Description:
Blueprint: H1 2-35, H2 42-59, H3 64-81, H4 84-95, H5 105-120, H6 124-140, H7 144-160, H8 164-181, H9 184-197, H10 203-219, H11 223-239, H12 243-260, H13 263-280, H14 284-301, H15 304-320, H16 324-384, H17 389-420, H18 431-435, H19 444-457, H20 468-475, H21 479-490, H22 494-511, H23 520-527, H24 532-543, H25 547-554, H26 570-574
Helix pairs in contact: 1-2, 1-3, 2-3, 3-4, 3-5, 4-5, 4-16, 5-6, 6-7, 7-8, 8-9, 9-10, 10-11, 11-12, 11-13, 12-13, 13-14, 13-15, 14-15, 15-16, 17-22, 19-21, 22-24
Amino acid sequence: MKLLLVLALIAGQVLCCAPALHAQVEYNTLIKEAAAFLPDELEKADAATVKLLAQLLQNGPVDDSIFAKANFLMGQVRQYQGSLNSASSYYYEALESAYCKQKNNVANACWNNLAIIYEQQSQFNEALEAYHQSLEIAEFLADSSSIAETWINISVLDNRNGNKTKAIEECGLVLDYYRRQGDTLNMALCYQNLGFYHSKTNLKLSKDYSLEALRLNTAIHNTYGIAKSSINVAAVFVNNGEYDQAKKILLETQELCTKHEFIQILATVYRILADIELQKGQNFDVAKEYLEKAVSFCSMNGQEDNLSEVLLTKVKLNAKFGHYDGFTDALDEYLSLQKRVLEENSLRVFHEIQAIYDVNKLITQKQVLQEGNNLLSRQLIVSLLFLLFAIVAICIIVFQYFRLKRAMKTMFKMNVTIAKAAPQSLQETDIEENSKLEDDEIPIINLYNEILRRIDKEKLYLNPAFSVQDLCLTMNRSKRYISRAIAEGGGTNFVSLVNEFRVNEARRLLAGHFVELPSIVVMLEKTGFGSRQSFYRSFKMLTGFSPQEYMSWAQKPPDDEPDLFQNDTLEGVLA
């Protein structure tokens, strides 16, 4: 009898471990697939990672490294999207795991990315602390390359904090390391940084270092590095009052950047050329032409920080040459840009705060689920001491069956709830007053709310041929501004927005027909979908069911079976 119990225990443990190992391999595969979308396909990466985290929260404990990697990946996605506070939350969640506390490459990457975020937010002390955390891990792993790269970042940060002497010393040590390694590319980077560090205090040293960086980049045919180094050399000449030499270098750099389409550097080239004309005070028209080109390239590349400097130079130029009208226009442009950046930053902070709230909510739900799953695991282990392999296997199968059925039932109830809920806009706005405004005068959020109300009130989505051009004509707005309002206000595009209305209409139709349901053809006619394929794809994506599955659930009486989980709240189920 004792031997039988031991065999049952061993068999049960094997059964418990095997699914866990399989799940770990599956999750690692999902993480690699999601990471492959970065950084070019952010929407796909976002969707895949959100789905992965939802599965982890729903299915309960797995290897701690999976949670760490998934949170790190979500942090990367948010960082690429510009949601810096949200990204930080995910990185810290990863760092809290036991896996990252063991000082590995994932922890190192988290600290590095956190430091970059802090730099972008001008929190230099926090960034410096994060870099030192990364450095500690790199030294623990004896990763010389990571150590050197981190010291470069630390030196740049020390220079920003006003610790120029310390920054120069740190960069010099890294330069010695790269010399021993024969790493010409990173040697050039070090010389370039040293040239910048000395630009305000020692023009001769700044010039020597910048020229050496240019020489090394030229030697290894690093075209982008050549362009960046040339900019630094030209800046030294400008600071030294050698405008002709600076202009010559900049014009050569302009040809190089044009050939290789380095748009970001081109904007800087034209800005410095305009600044030279401003300093010389000789040719207003040439300087104006340079600034117009700089503005064009900044707009092409979305460089709002560089554009701000360009517009400020434009203000100074008109002031110096006494062009009052041009001065006021340039000043208005500059102030308008600052206002727009402030509004966008405010909106971004709002979304990030909302995302942080969602993250904290998910973390809380995860802890509750983990506690519940830990309790179930202990009960299962005790049961294995008294049950044979076959009985345990049957119990597991039955449990999983009811769990899946409960999840499907809950998801259907959620869809019915959504179907019965009236559509809501974000806020009330004065439609008549907005209609009198030009595109650029109406706030984006107001226009987005007006779009939602117009589509819902007039049932525009029921027309299968309804297009963005029709919406533009209906609202008397340009396509560019309509598309921008949908993208920034709703975080989606026109097709997806209209399909959401159509799927919600399908939900409402199906939610009211528990006995006799319309056919798919009728559903297409009554919801506005132009094709069966589009209806199936959109319905599955937004509800989690195929139309046939949804119909099957809708035909069941609402309380056709006892709820095995009566003590769970709806919010708990959603986790």
